[in-house]
Design goal:
One of its GO terms (molecular function) is L-malate dehydrogenase (NAD+) activity. One of its GO terms (biological process) is malate metabolic process. It catalyses: (S)-malate + NAD(+) = oxaloacetate + NADH + H(+). By secondary structure, the chain is α/β, with parallel strands linked by helices. The chain contains 12 helices and 11 strands. Strand 5, helix 5 and strand 6 form a beta-alpha-beta unit. Helix 1 packs parallel to helix 10. The chain is globular and about 55 Å long. It starts with a strand and ends with a helix. The structure holds nicotinamide-adenine-dinucleotide and (2S)-2-hydroxybutanedioic acid.
Length: about 350
């Protein structure tokens, strides 16, 4: 059984994510931590008769929240308002993630660290470099940015399209949207054009009417903006993100419990490719210099909550269009990574 800590548990994502993780059969202790005291959320959740025991911490109790944690999930930080980019959040959120990772280095240096806070493309390097700077050994095999929301959106939007268009020639009239991860995946990064949806069953693309495929791609890449706009200044995606994070954390927990999962082999995460088994192979397939593809979201194979290897087979299946999109993504990703690393390694 496993202790999981949620840092930022009082927030828009933190609260529904805490509820979903409270229901997990794989968690024995769920520690809720926030600078805004999550005591009310904790007492409320503690009345649910599921396995996980709830603990609540705030302010200077970060060390107590983290002690013994095997998995740490970080949704702490500010969300976007209309007109902002994820990059606009960097200055505030990089400082928050650095402080939290300093605490992780002190209290649970071997924990798997899952970053939700934006901009993910830059904050995963911030998390990794903070751990390294604080003498944590080989953190690259257990620090991951959660990009599952892009997968969830791609599955939902493609499933909606297929059902509306009544595409029946691939075997079924009604697509089960919970099974869509075998038809589509998303790689790259987590912002606008760095998000690269990849349709795994290529005939689906050819069946789409002109313009339909481009609309699908655009909606996945800019789905976050759709929610930010609809929430009119009240933040960004929270419920769909909590669902997506729960889905990813469940895969991590199952890898610890050695339980099979339907998502295994189909689960991308944003990681530091260059340091991981299978990473160099992925970089070679990208045909870009090592520096240009240091971090990327690609399917990861997990074991014991850690990355055993990168599975780059999806890169063998790219269409010309998907390859072009990835080529467009790489320079932006490299800039994002540089910004994150500079924040920790060469602060001005
Ligand atoms: P929110 O403002 O509702 O909640 C954030 C919480 O973090 C607040 O409760 C706040 O008190 C807490 N916090 C701030 N500083 C902290 C610190 N130092 N330690 C602990 N807690 C701290 O925001 P939200 O809607 O939950 O979004 C959180 C982050 O997740 C944002 O950066 C957002 O952009 C990002 N996000 C990422 C994805 C993704 O796909 N990866 C999806 C949606 C949102
Ligand atoms: C999303 O994709 O919904 C999140 O990254 C939040 C945002 O700012 O769009």
């Amino acid at each position: 059984m496993v202790k999981v800590a949620i840092l930022g548990a009082s927030g828009g994502i933190g609260q529904p994510l805490s509820l979903l993780l409270k229901l997990s059969p794989y968690i024995s202790k769920l520690a809720l931590y926030d600078v805004r005291d999550p005591a009310g959320v904790a007492v409320d959740l503690s009345h649910i008769n599921s396995v996980a025991e709830i603990e609540s911490y705030h302010g200077d109790q970060l060390g107590d929240a983290l002690r013994g944690a095997r998995v740490v999930v970080i949704p702490a930080g500010v969300p976007r308002k209309p007109g902002m980019s994820r990059d606009d959040l960097f200055n505030i959120n990089a400082g928050i993630v650095r402080t939290l990772c300093e605490g992780i280095a002190r209290s649970c240096p071997n924990a798997t660290v899952l970053v939700i806070s934006n901009p993910v493309n830059s904050l995963v390097p911030v998390a990794l470099e903070t751990l390294r700077k604080n003498n944590v050994q080989n953190p690259e095999n257990r620090v991951m940015g959660i990009t599952t929301l892009d997968m969830v959106r791609a599955e939902t939007f493609l499933g909606d399209y297929l059902n509306k268009a009544r595409v029946s020639s691939v075997g079924s009239k009604q697509f089960d949207k919970r099974r869509m991860h075998k038809l589509v995946t998303v790689i790259g990064g987590h912002s606008g054009h760095t998000i690269v949806p990849v349709v795994l069953l290529k005939p689906l693309v050819y069946m789409m009417k002109p313009g339909e495929y481009d609309r699908f791609l655009n909606r996945v890449q800019f789905g976050g903006d759709e929610v930010v706009k609809a929430k009119q200044g009240q933040g960004s995606a929270t419920y769909s993100m909590a669902f997506a994070a729960h889905r990813f954390v469940d895969v991590v927990l199952r890898s610890i419990q050695r339980m099979p999962t339907d998502d295994a082999g189909f689960t991308p995460a944003y990681v530091q490719l260059s340091q991981l088994p299978g990473g160099a192979e992925a970089q070679n397939k990208l045909g870009a210099g090592k520096a240009a593809a240091e971090y990327l979201s690609l399917p990861v194979v997990l074991r014991d909550g850690r990355i055993e290897r990168i599975d780059s087979s999806v890169l063998d299946q790219l269409s010309v269009k998907e390859r072009e999109m990835l080529k467009t993504a790489l320079p932006e990703l490299a800039d994002n990574v540089r910004r994150g690393k500079r924040f920790i390694c060469n602060p001005a």
